[in-house]
Amino acid sequence: MTTEEKLDRLTETVVAHDSQIEAIIRTLDRLAATVRTVNSSMATLATSIAAHDQQIDALLTISEENSRKWRELNKRFETYLNTLPRQ
Description:
Blueprint: H1 3-83
């Protein structure tokens, strides 16, 4: 194989590798865009989760207050029932 043939073959190999590298770069660019989209979605979800956590905390507070009020009402009712004459 002559030097010229070796250079031609080397050139073909370099061109093929360049094409592969460009394809890999395009793939990495698409993956980077996907990662940015996913990160954005995760940030949105994190905000939603935080809002839901606040709503749940508020509902728990209301539930605890209602439970306390029901216990108080039950005691009052029992007290009232105890004031009625027995039959």
